[in-house]
Each structure stands twice: as structure tokens, then as C-alpha cells.
Amino acid sequence: MSLSPAPACIELTHGSGGRVTAELITNVFHRHFDNAWLRQGNDYAIFTPPPGRLVISTDAHVITPLWFPGGDIGCLAVNGTINDVAMAGAQPLYLSAAFILEEGFLLTDLERIVISMAAAARAAGVPIVTGDTKVVERGHGDGCFITTTGIGVVPKGINISGDRAALGDAILINGSMGDHGVAVLAAREQLHFITPPQSDSAALHSLVAAMITAVPELHCLRDPTRGGLATTLNELAHQSGVGMQLTEAAIPIHAAVRGACELLGFDPLYLANEGKLVAICPAAAAETLLATMRAHSLGREAAIIGTVTGDAQHLVQMKTVFGGSRLVAWLTGDQLPRIC
Amino acid sequence: MTPFSNAATIRIRGLVQGVGFRPHVWHCARALHLIGTVQNDGDGVLIEVWSASASALDQFCAALQRDCPPLAQITAIERRRLNHPPPASLTDFHIIASAATAVHTGIIPDIATCAACRADLTDPANRRYRYAFTNCTHCGPRFSIITALPYDRVQTSMAAFPLCPTCAAEYADPADRRFHAQPNACPSCGPQLTLTHPDGSAVALLDGDVIATTRQLLRDGGIVAVQGIGGFHLACDAAHVAAVARLRLRKGRDAKPFALMAADLTTIRRYCAVSESEAQLLTSPAAPIVLLDRLPPCQITGDDLAAAVAPGQDSLGFMLPYSPLHWLLLTDQPRPLVMTSGNRSAEPQVTEHADAYQQLGGIADALLLHNRGIVNRVDDSVARVLLGKTHMLRRARGYAPAPLYLPDDCVTNTTVLALGAELKSTFCFVTGNRALLSPHLGDLDNPRTFAEYQRMIAAYQRLFALEPAVIAVDLHPDYRATQYGRDWAARAELPLIFVQHHHAHLAAVLAEHGWSRHGGKVLGWALDGLGYGADGTLWGAELLLCDYCHAERVAHLKAVALPGGDRAATQPWRNLLAQLDAAGVWSTAVARWSNVPIMQLLLAQPVDLLRQMIAQQINSPRSSSAGRLFDAVAAALLPEYAMQLNYDGQAAQALEMLARPQLAAAGDGYCFEITTDAMEQQVLEPAPIWAELFADLIAGVAPALIAARFHTGLARALVDSAQQQAARFGVTTLALAGGVLQNRSLLVQITQRAEAAGLRVLTAQQVPCHDGGIALGQAVVAGQRYVSGGKVGAGRAM
Ligand SMILES: [Fe+3]
Ligand SMILES: [Mg+2]
Ligand SMILES: [Zn+2]
Ligand SMILES: [Zn+2]
């Protein structure tokens, strides 16, 4: 038994694999994530998959700051991976989580993150069934990195993929663009806006389940995270070999985000979202899909924002609010000024 | 001696097709009693000629050159002896059919209606009286109607109009002005006008006369979409206040001045001062829009223009009628017409009927259409005369696709395609000794413009038989043009050569002045809005020591943050805040200058957040932009422009207008500090000017004088620096380029000071100083680097 008082922060011994590691796992991770698989105490989780095709996706989460209005790295790590699995039209079943902690990271902070993850996982109904922890020396990490992997199953008859957008299809989104990107930037840089933007972090699988039930012929789903809506649509256009025509006025953007973007000079279409999806479906099903999305709590602001066009160059175009049109570029990196 | 024992083949190169050159040859030959043939081929014009006397052949060659038709440009006459006798069947001089060979000949631009055709139009006895499609070998549409070479009627949009017997006879008669005039037409066989409502239904005509009805509509304050040579215009009576206001409202264009067309020089002179060289430019075959100084209102007699034509401008853009249709609309009209390009704001000019109905139907009250298709869109060119020289501000109709000729030692056998910049876009092919700069195309973030850009590249390839071997692009990774070129080079496995934005600006100036490849280095101030720098930072006022292949930055304006990136280019107040912040005088400004109007305006903005953005480098890249410095000063002196610009360059232009009358009184102007940085580059530091400028504002000095002091101080600092670097590097030539040099006061001041300091000054004249000229510079730099640079891998950067 250790004679020294329990350390208040992460030390290298927490990653040694010895008793201190075991204590951390038991007292923090198992305690909050608590489920049958973890209780077995194995280094893996074993289960019988339900019928259907399995989907697996993994995501590494690195974010500064760890806490921001509307969320934290914990809920992001859970929701982000659930969303990646859900974008295949799948029902997510299980998650794994790997933590890389920096020496000196406060245990209370870790616990806050783990509680948030546990709450997100419980709310989503997707247990975290296995995991791992490593500790890096002070200065070799940024507090806490979390990698999560999700496994899910695609119901029969569902065939969703980024290369399936077809001429005439409708393009929908489930709500406002840019909330997460602006919220994190404002928190990181301590920019004080009168109405602080809130991250939209949310798990979208129940929305997706409702959507594929209503419109099983759905063609594409994708979450417009890094790079925002503009990047996602360009990716989909290239993957499917099509063009897209958007209507700027139809794209919901919250006043707080619009205001912040106006000041900061950012285009909200390039900012990250963490609780949003793009759906592409046959035009005939668009209204049904829209109604289904709007009936769900995560799709109240859903909108049809454009259509899929034939375009050998796979350009994404947008009719602007001024009646003109512009190309929605696929940027090389950050938003760089171009006006000479 | 047998008759016709003197014989030669004569090869004529240059712009010699579609300009009446073969009839000219025919006339010369007949006058000298020569026998032989003349034909067009891919290299130009080929003559075989036999003469009884040797001197007649010499006279023939001399006459070919001396009496050359007005639109022709001979670049070479090559004469070789011919040793066989003429074929027995040949008893006279003949024009024979074109030979289909590889194309190395030019295509001439669209040319304003000539005096002879104007006489036909206005002569009631002439069969073309009031016929809107009258033209001849010396005038009329060319580039705008051509689909392929050789330039024959079947390869133009006139193919749909078979010639009537009378027109066919003119076409076949070498003695006729319309011999081989491909667009030849008359009322019985040629294109026709229709006047329709925006819903497509016909407008009830007065006496069955489309022109008279249109004139009446315009007189009544109507807006008419007029299908012209290279696209549509939106026309209305420029003196009709309500009509002009309606046009602004419907077109969604708040403040940018409208172009005007007047019946004649006399009408223009009622509104503007027109010098001899300006009159020449207005009446030239290209007939561009010419920017002219406005007369003071007190000197204008009647029919004053609606203020909304060009709000707050001290100059107006006028052109003369350049097609018969325009002549018919304007003859005897005392008032000018607004003739603005037919498009919605930010969209390219419309060329098709369907688009006209769709895009202009909501703007125009009627559409004046014709059925001669516009194959290649060509906007009106814009030019002005400065220091006695023509400066192109938009190079399009009447100029493109005529080539610019490269200096002899820059000629290579590599065809280069340069893709230009993002805004005011053009592209340029260099092949042999010719640089083929496309007409102005517009901003590539507009999908229609981007499509037009690609279509036009394909048209140039077809018309000039070009296949690029090297692709040149800007360094900016997010220019559409850069990405397009990158994709092209990768697909075709061609070398891709990146040319720095400001190097390209300056190289364009060198090329148009025929600067030799071995002419040594020059210094060049690129005074610009923004360009991606060779060091990955954003540049905008760089003194480069350069030739075609190399450029080294030797001085620049101090880099200052652009808070909000591109947002800073449309909101001048951001630049003022950034300048005051960078100069370290922000707290002084708040404490001591707060009763200056602009400070009150600034303090009502979220300045703390903006300063935080600058300090924490949030979307606030630093740039040595000259354009943004002008915006900052404009914001300080003209708060009405501080918040949001309606169009590119609006604030800087207003500042220049404010300064111009006071330049003579400005003395040495404000003092920029010139320092040297760690890289041995001179840095022009604007910090000290702000205290001076605000002290003047507080002391009640007129803003006009303050603006003049700024212009003068900047010009002085730029020339001082250039002079020091010239001495250091032993250079005697200073090139000037970049969009900021559309500022005539700055251009004149720099030029005069630099010349006084013994420097030879080269400015952008034939090619715009702004991004519309970039492609030419890119093409020449890439071509020279390619031939001197050695190994370049396929699709690899250089
Ligand atoms: Fe430029
Ligand atoms: Mg992933
Ligand atoms: Zn003529
Ligand atoms: Zn005819």
C-alpha cells in the first residue's frame, strides 16, 4: 500500500502499467464508464455482433481549450466518433477510448472530462467498452489527447456512401453552420462576444436512424467537421463526380456566429461543426427527409440548401444573397486573403 | 528578254488576313501590270508575281508597304527569286482560295464602323441606309464572331446568312470595299433587329421602325438591353434622373460609375475636357471608353447628366458609337446614353438571348436583339491618357486578340500558357515572338466568369493552333487560376512554373516596352493590393531588383496587419486601426485625437476585439500592401468611405481626387522613415506620418491638403528608396506596376520625381497595371526561365 497521499495530478507512474495505473483505471475510468465489459477486467471487450454489415471508425481528438461553451474534449470524443459511424447509416454499438495524458495534468480535470464522456456515452446509449492510457513527459503533450473508436452496424437495405450523390439530388443540412468553430476560437483566444457562440457538439445517430427509416434511399451523409460545409461539399462533389448548386439564403447561420464571422473576417461555411450533417437524397424524397429531420430535436433548423448538378469539374457554386453567384472554393489550407 | 522574266515569291507576315490585304495586293499588282497570284495561308499572305521589268517588282514591294490597309500590320516582307516562267494559263493577277496549312497568322480585333460605312448608313439612296449590320473590309466585327481559322464566313456566326446576289458580287469583286469582307451583309440577306418585352413578346413598333421605337423608349426614360458586338449593354438616357436611378436600383450597383456613349466628340466636349490625344483615342478603330476630366458644372450648357451616372467622380468614361446599331441609336441625339455592361452586379456580360431574358429581363424595360451570334464575349476596353500616353485600364474590345510582340531575344520556340490572377482575370499565351493576352474576363470566383475563362482559353487554342508546353501560375495557392494551371500541368505532365505576383506585374511592363533579355536588371516598384510573396508572407509594395528570370526584394513598405483578412480590403477603417496600432499611437489617438470625426467613428466599432485579433494574430496576416495604406488614409480623411466600400478601389480613388487640386501646395509631404532590416532590405515605415496627419486634422488643415501631403510624402519616399537602390546596384531604369498605380497623382508624382533623379521610368501602358496585366508577365518570365533554367520535371514546380 502506498504511504504517500494520492497525487493531485498525473505522474509518469500513472502510465507505468503498475498499481498506480490500475488505481487510475478503477477509480476514474471504470467508475464513470461503468458497464459489464469493463467490469470483466479484460484488456478487450468481446461481444456477438447483430446481423448486418459492421462499420468501424476512429478519431483522434486534440483541442485547445479542453473546455468551451457548449462542450469539452470529452463529449467531443464520444460524439465525434459516434457521428463518423452514424454517417454510414449505421447504429453505433460500442466505443473504445485511448487517453494520452501529459505529466502534471490535474486529476480533477481528467475526472471532469471522463464524467462528460460517460454522460455523452450514456445519453447516446453507446457504452465505452475498452480503452488504454499512456502518460507522456511534461511538455510532450497538451494536457489530454483522446482517441476513440466506434463500431456500429448498418441495417439491411441501407447503402450510404460519399460517391453516391446523383444528378438532381437534393442537399440538406440539419441546422446552423459554424457554431463549433467560432465557439472554440472565441474560448481559445478569449474573445468576448456579446452573445458567446456555443458549440453544437451532439451525437447524431438517433437523427440518422429516423432519417433512414423515413428515406431508406438516402445517398450520402457526412458530418461537416474540420473545413466546414464548404470543404465537405467539395469532397462529396469530387467523390461522386458531380457539381453542386447551393442557395446561400437557405443556409442557416446563427446571428452570434454571423456577427463573429463578420468581425473576424471568416466565412462560416469553412468553420467546423460537431453536431451537423449533410444529407443528399433523391429530389422526390427531399420533403419527406426535411420533415423527418425537423421533427427531431437535432434537426429543428434543417434546410434544403441546394441540388446536385452535372459538372465535369465538380464545382460547388452558390447563388448569393445578392442574386449573384460565386464558386465555393476548396481551399488549400486556412482562409487566406486573395483580394489584390 | 522575254516578257515576265522577273519573278518572285513574296511572303508577308503579320496581321494581314481579314483586313483587305489581298485586294490591296491585287490593286498594286494591276496598277503595275504584273501577273501572278495572291493567297492567304497559315503564315500570312503568299504572293507569286511575274513582271516584265525588275524595277516594277521593287515598286510593287514598296507599294505593298506604303499603301498598307489601315487595319493591317506587316511584321515582315520576305522576297525570294523565282526562276520558272508563269504558267501559260496565267494572263492576269488573281486572288486565289486560301490554302489550309498551319496557322501562324493573327486575328484582328473588332473594329469600329469606318467613315465610308457611316456614309452608307446615312445615305437614303444607299441600299444599306439605316442598316444596323453594315461593315466592310476596314471595319466591323471580327474576333467576336469567329469560331475557327482560316477567317472565312463559314467559320463565323455569319455562316447562318447566305449572301444575296448583290452582296455576293461585292464579296467577289477585288475592286470593292467589301471584297472578302466575311461579315458582309445587307437588309435583304443579313442579320435583323427585333425589339421585345422582357417576357419575349414583341414591342409594338412606331411605323414598323425598331430603331425609332427604341429611341423613343430611351427618351421616355426606359432601360433597354442592347445586344452589341461583344455582349449586351444596358442603355438609358444619361440625363434622365429617374431612368438612371432605376437602372442603379435594378442592377444592384450602388455607386460604381456608369460608362457613357455620345453621338460625337462635340457632345462629349459639352461634359468633359477632351485633349487632342484623347480625341484620337476616342475616334481610333478600337474606340475604347476613355476616362476624361469632367468640366465644372457651371460650364455645362443644358442636358446635365443625372448625378447618379458617376456619383462623386471628377471624371467620366465616354465612348463613341462603334457599331452601326450604336450610330443609329445616337445620331442627332443631344444627350449621351448610359451604356453599362449588360449583367447583374459581379456577373459577366451576357452574350446569349436566353441569358439576356433571364438575367436582364428584370432590369430592362425592353430588349433590342439581333440574330448575329456573339461567339466570343468581349467587354468594352477602358483607357486614359496620362502624361501624353495612353494607359489601358481594361484591355478587351478593339485590342484583344491582337498580339503584343516580344523583344527579339525573348523569342523561344516554347509555347507558354500563363493563367493570370484571381480578380480582373486574363490569361496569356506566348508563342514565338507573340504574346496573346486574352481580353479582360473578370473575377474568377464567379462561376460564369470561370466557365468563360476556360471557354476563351479553348477558343485561343483553336484560333491560334496553340498547345502549351509550359504552364505559368501565381504563387497564391488559392487562386482559381493557380489551381486550374496546377491541374492542367499535372494532367498533361507539363512543367509548372510559379511566378511571384509582383515580379509578374513588373515583367509585364518590361515586356510591353521591349526590354531586352540581356538588358540587365531594373528596379521596379510594384504598388499593389496584395500578392503572395516569395517568402510566403503577403506582399503589396515591393521594390524588386529584377529581370525576366530573377527578382530580389530590396525594399518594401512595412508590413501591417490586415485584421479580418479580405474583410480589410472592403472595410477601410480596419486598416486605419491597424496602422495606428502598428505605429504605436493608438492610445494617443484615443486620448488626444478623439474629437476628430473618424476617431469617433472608430471608437463606435469593436476596436478592442480588433486589436486583440491583431495582437493574437487571429485572421490578421501582415502585409506590406500599398492599397491598404491608401485605404487607411482615406478612412481618416473621408469617413464616409471608412465603413464599407461599394467597389474595388473606391476609397483610394476618392482620396486621390481629394488630393489632386492641392498637390502643388503639398511641399515635401509627410515623412516616411526609411530603415534597413535584418535581411538588408529597406523598410519604408509609415508610422511617423500618422502623428503629422492627425496634428494637421486637429489644426484644421483642409483634408485635401492632408491627402496631397500623403501622396507627395509617399511618392518621395518611394523615389528616395529607388534612387538609393539604383545607386547601390548601378541600375538606371525604374519600372512601375501594380493596381495602386491606377492612382494618377501617385503615378505622375513618382514618374516626375524619378525622372528628375535621372531614372528612366517605364509604366504600364498597353497592358493594365493591375492584375489584368499579370498573365503577360507570368508568360514572359516562365518562358525565359524555362529556356535558361535547365531541368524541370513534369508537373513539378520551378
Ligand atoms: Fe496585383
Ligand atoms: Mg474519423
Ligand atoms: Zn467600313
Ligand atoms: Zn445582301
TrEMBL record, chain A:
Protein name: Hydrogenase expression/formation protein HypE
One GO process term, biological-process aspect: protein maturation
Domain PurM-like N-terminal positions: 42-154
Source organism of this protein record: Thiospirillum jenense
Gene this chain is encoded by: hypE
Domain of life of the native organism: Bacteria
PANTHER family, alphabetized: CARBAMOYL DEHYDRATASE HYPE, HYDROGENASE ISOENZYMES FORMATION PROTEIN HYPE
Chain ranges of the PurM-like C-terminal domain: 168-313
Family (UniProt): Belongs to the HypE family.
Automatic annotation (TrEMBL), chain B:
GO biological process per UniProt: protein maturation
A molecular function GO annotation: double-stranded RNA binding
Transmembrane segments: none
SUPFAM superfamilies linked: Acylphosphatase/BLUF domain-like (SSF54975), YrdC/RibB (SSF55821)
Catalytic activity: C-terminal L-cysteinyl-[HypE protein] + carbamoyl phosphate + ATP + H2O = C-terminal S-carboxamide-L-cysteinyl-[HypE protein] + AMP + phosphate + diphosphate + H(+); an acyl phosphate + H2O = a carboxylate + phosphate + H(+)
InterPro entries noted in UniProt: Acylphosphatase-like_dom, Acylphosphatase-like_dom_sf, Acylphosphatase_CS, Carbamoyltrans_HypF-like, Carbamoyltransferase_HypF, DHBP_synth_RibB-like_a/b_dom, HypF_C, HypF_C_2
Enzyme Commission number: 6.2.-.-
Endpoints of the signal sequence: none
Domain YrdC-like: 208-398
Pfam families in alphabetical order: Acylphosphatase, HypF_C, HypF_C_2, Sua5_yciO_yrdC, zf-HYPF
Main function: Involved in the maturation of [NiFe] hydrogenases. Along with HypE, it catalyzes the synthesis of the CN ligands of the active site iron of [NiFe]-hydrogenases. HypF functions as a carbamoyl transferase using carbamoylphosphate as a substrate and transferring the carboxamido moiety in an ATP-dependent reaction to the thiolate of the C-terminal cysteine of HypE yielding a protein-S-carboxamide.
Family: Belongs to the carbamoyltransferase HypF family.
PANTHER family: CARBAMOYLTRANSFERASE, CARBAMOYLTRANSFERASE HYPF
Name of the featured protein: Carbamoyltransferase HypF
Source organism: Thiospirillum jenense
Gene symbol of the encoding locus: hypF
